[in-house]
Amino acid sequence: MSEAVVTVTADAEQFTCNAYLLLGETPTLVDAGTMPGVVDVVAEHTDTLDRVVLTHQHSDHIGQLDAVLDAFDADLYAYAEHPRRTTELNDGDEVAMGDESFEVVYTPGHAADHVSFVSETRLFSGDVVVYNDGAYDDGSFGRTDMAGQSRERLIASLKSLLERLPDSVTSMYAGHGDPFHVADHDESVRAVVERALSRAERRQPKYPEN
């Protein structure tokens, strides 16, 4: 199943989010990243790109957005306003990506416009929850120490995500770090999100000063 999702920023040499290409009936790019050449990587896998779907509009997620939209004449799906947005995302919406339908789950805290996408088998979690990063392995959460961010809202978002996460989800694709596949581990996606929630609820700084 995972081969239907390509991490187009896998070879990036500078800071970027993970941008994911879903192949299938509705070719979709989840976030655009900042890596020069994202357009070329997408073009290696598909001649057409139906849409770009944003988890949120932090700079590391949209640096190559204009280039991708221009190259493929793709639609733009986003929660917050954007000059090139063609479709507004709202909590509870259903969005076709690849060969599946995903529910939009509003998950603010790391960003006020943050959304996650949940299907029967996959979770695209953006930055609200990641599998590993510089702070934690096997279940971490987005930073909340910068302007416009809120740990309390992020905690509520993780709880909402768990309420709407089917047990059948076997893969998590986050904005940073490695994708998580149940087949490669001895635990569920739900367990990873629950661990991230537990760590967030300690309300300790994610990146304590050295």
Could you please describe the fold and organization of this structure?
The protein has 210 residues and is α/β, with parallel strands linked by helices. The chain has one domain (2-201): 4-Layer Sandwich (Metallo-beta-lactamase, Chain A), CATH 3.60.15.10. It is built from five helices and 14 strands. Helix 4 (151-163) runs antiparallel to helix 5 (189-201). The longest helix is centred in the C-terminal third of the chain and has 13 residues, at 151-163. The model has no long low-confidence stretch (mean pLDDT 96).
Please describe the structure with a list of short key phrases separated by commas or semicolons.
210 residues, alpha/beta, Metallo-beta-lactamase, Chain A, six-stranded mixed β-sheet, 23% strand
Spatial order of strands in the largest sheet: 1-2-3-4-5-6
What is the CATH class name? Alpha Beta
Return the structural class: alpha/beta
Briefly note the CATH topology name. Answer: Metallo-beta-lactamase, Chain A
Q: Helix count, per DSSP?
A: 5
